[in-house]
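Q: I'm building a small set of examples for a reading group on sequence design. Run inverse folding on the following structure and report the sequence directly after it, with nothing in between.
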C-alpha cells in the first residue's frame, strides 16, 4: 500500500511542470537604466531561473526581438502618453498593432498574452487627465487586435494602482471603488468581463511602511501574525491580502464577483531607505512565494492565489527619485543581473541564490575615488553635492548601503558613480584634483562600487562626458542639460506609484 502511494505521488510530482508559485509568477522588466543589460542576456537569465511570464512597459524592438521564439508569456504595455491618440485615432491604433504585435507573429513569434493600455492611468496624482481616454483606447486596441486576427490569443487590460479602491470603514469587506472614478472603473470591468480579461492591480506594502509612521511593520510581511485587522471575525495579518479583498469586495458590489485579479506589480526594494534592505526584501519574498505556493487565496477569494508579477527584475539607475531614493533599487537582481539575496521561486522556502546573468561584458576594472592628496580641499562638499546632482547617490542616504561612512566615502561613492556612468571617461574623474582613478576595488562591506556594463555603443571617448574639473558655475549649466536628457528617457517607463493604498493603510492603523 504505502509504496504504491509513494510511487503515485512521485509520478504526480514529475508530471507537474513547476510549482504553483512558479507557474503563477511573472516579473516586470523595465529598462530605465544608463547601461541596460543586453535583452538577449536577460531572456536567457529568465529561462535559467524557470521564470515563464514577463511584463514590459513598452513595445521596444530590441526587447521583443530577444523575446521572439522564447515561449515566455508576455504582457506588453502602451504608455499613458499614447492614450489620447489611441482613443481618438483608430488608424494610429491599427498602426500600433501592426508594428508592435503583428510584426512578431510567424517566425519571429512573441507569445503575447496581454496588451496593457496605459499604466496606472487613474493615479490620484494625475488628476483625471487620462480618465476619459483609457476605456476608449482599450476598446480600440481590442478591436484592432481582433481585426488583425489576434483576438483569440491576446487580451486587453489596464494596470490600475491600488488607489482606485478604498473602504468606507477600515474593513476590506466594505471596499468600494474611489468615488471620482468609480463609474469609469465599473465600465472597464464590464469591458474586461466581455473579453475574459483580468483586473490588473499594483499593490505596494513597502510604501505603506515607508509613508505611514506607526504602520505596524509585521503587517507589511507574511511571517508574523502579531498584528491583526479584524473584519467581522476574519483576521488579516498582511496588508497585501487586505488590499486584494478590498478589491474583491468592490468588484462584488459592482456585479463582478468572479473577475480574475492579477497583481501587476508587487515587490520590495533593497537600498535607499531604512526599510529598503536585502534582509527585508528576502523576508517579504519568502513569505509571498510561500503563500503563492500554498495556493490558498484570501478570505473573500479562497479558491486560489492571484497571479503575481514581481516588481522588479533589475535595478534601474535612471528612474525618477521623486517617490524616494529606493526607487532605483527594486530589482531582485542588480542592474547587471546578479542575484541580491537567496530566493526560492517555487515557494518551498529552500532559498538559494538565483542564476545570474551570463556573458556580461564589463568596462575596465578601475574606479574613481576621493583623492586625499588633492591640493585644494576646500570645496569638497560642493563638489560632492554637484556630483550627486548629476549621478546616482541613492546609496548614501540614511539606512542605505553606503550611509554613515563619512564625507570621504560620500565623495568616493559620488565621484565613482559619476565616472562609471560617464563610461569611465578620464575627464569625468577630476573634480579639481579631488578625484583619482584606482585599480583596486574600493568596495567596503555593504558599500559596493559598481562598474558599468560595456554596451555596444559605450566608449571611453573623453569628449562625451562633461568635464567636472572646471568651476562650479559651469558645472550647473552642464548639469541642467544632462538631467533634461535623462528625464526624457525616464518618461519611457513604469510610473512611480506616488499615491497608494492610502485609505486602507490609514484606516488600518487608526482603527486597529
Ligand atoms: C503615466 O503618466 C504619467 C503622467 O503623465 C507619466 O509621468 C508616466 O511616465 C506614465 N507612465 C507610463 C508607463 O506611461
Ligand atoms: C492618425 O494616425 C495616423 C497613423 O499614425 C496618422 O497618419 C494621422 O495623421 C493621424 N490623424 C490625425 C487626425 O492625427
Ligand atoms: C510601437 O511601440 C513603440 C514603443 O511604445 C512606439 O514607440 C511605436 O511608436 C509603436 N509603433 C507604432 C506604429 O505605433
Ligand atoms: C471627461 O469628460 C467629461 C464628460 O464629457 C467632462 O466633463 C470632463 O471634463 C472630462 N475630463 C477631462 C479631464 O477632460
Ligand atoms: C512579531 O512582531 C512583534 C511586534 O513587532 C514582535 O514583538 C515579535 O517579537 C515578533 N515575533 C517574531 C516571532 O518575530
Ligand atoms: C543641484 O541642482 C539643483 C537643482 O537643479 C540646483 O539648484 C543646485 O544648485 C545644484 N547644486 C549643486 C551643488 O550643483
Ligand atoms: C553623506 O551624504 C548623505 C546623503 O547626501 C548625507 O546625508 C550625509 O550627511 C553625508 N555625510 C557627510 C559626512 O557629509
Ligand atoms: C571600511 O569601513 C570601515 C568602517 O567604516 C573602516 O574602518 C575601514 O577603514 C574601511 N576600509 C577601507 C578599505 O576603506
Ligand atoms: C555611455 O555609453 C552609452 C552606451 O552604452 C551611451 O548611451 C551614453 O551616452 C554614454 N554616456 C556618456 C556620458 O558618454
Amino acid at each position: 500500500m504505502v509504496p504504491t502511494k509513494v510511487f503515485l505521488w512521485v509520478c504526480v510530482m514529475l508530471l507537474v511542470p513547476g510549482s504553483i508559485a512558479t507557474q503563477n509568477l511573472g516579473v516586470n522588466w523595465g529598462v530605465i537604466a544608463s547601461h541596460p543589460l543586453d535583452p538577449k542576456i536577460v531572456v536567457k537569465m529568465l529561462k535559467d531561473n524557470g521564470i515563464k511570464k514577463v511584463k514590459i512597459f513598452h513595445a521596444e524592438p530590441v526587447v521583443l526581438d530577444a523575446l521572439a521564439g522564447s515561449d515566455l508569456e508576455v504582457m506588453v504595455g502602451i504608455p499613458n502618453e499614447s492614450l489620447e491618440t489611441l482613443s481618438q485615432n483608430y488608424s494610429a491604433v491599427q498602426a500600433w498593432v501592426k508594428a508592435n504585435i503583428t510584426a512578431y507573429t510567424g517566425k519571429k513569434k512573441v507569445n503575447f498574452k496581454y496588451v496593457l493600455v496605459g499604466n496606472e492611468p487613474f493615479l490620484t496624482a494625475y488628476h483625471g487627465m487620462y480618465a476619459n481616454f483609457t476605456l476608449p483606447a482599450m476598446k480600440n486596441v481590442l478591436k484592432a487586435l481582433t481585426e488583425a486576427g489576434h483576438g483569440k490569443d491576446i487580451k486587453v487590460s489596464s494596470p490600475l494602482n491600488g488607489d482606485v479602491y478604498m473602504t468606507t470603514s477600515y474593513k476590506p469587506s466594505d471596499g468600494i471603488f474611489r468615488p471620482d472614478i468609480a463609474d469609469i472603473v465599473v465600465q472597464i470591468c464590464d469591458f474586461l468581463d466581455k473579453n475574459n480579461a483580468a483586473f490588473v492591480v499594483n499593490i505596494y506594502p513597502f510604501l505603506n511602511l515607508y509613508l505611514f509612521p506607526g504602520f505596524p511593520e509585521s503587517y507589511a510581511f507574511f511571517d508574523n501574525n502579531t498584528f491583526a485587522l479584524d473584519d467581522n471575525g476574519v483576521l488579516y495579518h498582511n496588508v497585501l491580502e487586505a488590499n486584494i479583498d478590498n478589491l474583491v469586495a468592490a468588484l462584488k458590489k459592482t456585479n463582478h464577483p468572479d473577475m480574475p485579479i492579477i497583481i501587476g506589480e508587487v515587490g520590495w526594494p533593497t537600498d535607499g531607505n531604512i526599510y529598503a534592505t536585502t534582509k527585508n526584501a528576502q523576508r517579504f519574498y519568502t513569505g509571498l512565494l510561500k503563500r503563492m505556493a500554498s495556493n490558498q487565496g484570501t478570505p473573500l477569494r479562497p479558491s486560489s492565489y492571484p497571479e503575481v508579477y514581481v516588481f522588479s527584475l533589475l535595478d534601474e539607475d535612471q528612474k525618477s527619485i521623486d517617490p524616494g531614493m529606493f526607487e532605483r533599487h527594486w530589482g531582485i537582481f542588480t542592474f547587471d543581473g546578479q542575484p541580491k539575496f537567496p530566493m526560492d521561486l517555487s515557494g518551498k522556502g529552500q532559498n538559494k541564490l538565483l542564476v545570474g546573468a551570463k556573458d556580461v561584458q564589463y568596462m575596465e576594472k578601475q574606479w574613481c575615488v576621493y583623492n586625499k592628496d588633492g591640493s585644494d580641499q576646500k570645496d569638497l562638499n560642493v563638489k560632492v553635492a554637484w556630483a550627486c546632482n548629476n549621478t546616482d547617490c541613492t546609496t548614501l542616504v540614511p539606512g542605505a548601503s553606503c550611509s554613515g561612512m563619512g564625507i570621504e566615502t560620500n565623495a568616493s561613492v559620488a565621484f565613482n558613480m559619476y565616472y562609471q556612468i560617464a563610461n569611465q571617461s578620464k575627464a569625468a574623474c577630476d573634480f579639481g584634483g579631488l578625484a583619482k582613478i584606482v585599480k583596486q576595488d574600493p568596495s567596503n562591506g555593504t558599500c559596493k562600487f559598481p562598474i558599468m556594463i560595456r554596451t555596444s555603443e559605450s566608449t571611453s571617448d573623453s569628449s562625451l562626458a562633461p568635464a567636472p574639473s572646471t568651476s562650479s558655475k559651469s558645472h550647473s549649466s552642464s548639469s541642467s542639460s544632462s538631467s533634461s536628457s535623462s528625464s526624457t528617457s525616464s518618461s519611457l517607463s513604469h510610473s512611480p506609484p506616488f499615491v497608494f493604498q492610502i485609505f486602507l493603510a490609514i484606516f488600518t492603523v487608526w482603527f486597529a
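The two ends are 51 Å apart (CA to CA).
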